[in-house]
Amino acid sequence: MALSANDVAQKVFQMSFRGYKQDEVDDFLDIIEHELDERDREIHELRSRVRALEKKDDDFLL
Prior knowledge:
This protein is mainly α and 62 residues long.
């Protein structure tokens, strides 16, 4: 399963008596969400560049 920033943003954890500190978990999830957004933007940009280079290569071979 590919994990998206939206998956992280929508994740809800149950509260428990002796659980983790909610603020620390929320802060960490915010970091993960940001990193996933950056990763997805970079992948999109790189795929676009690959397509442009492939088209340029195809045009050159014609």
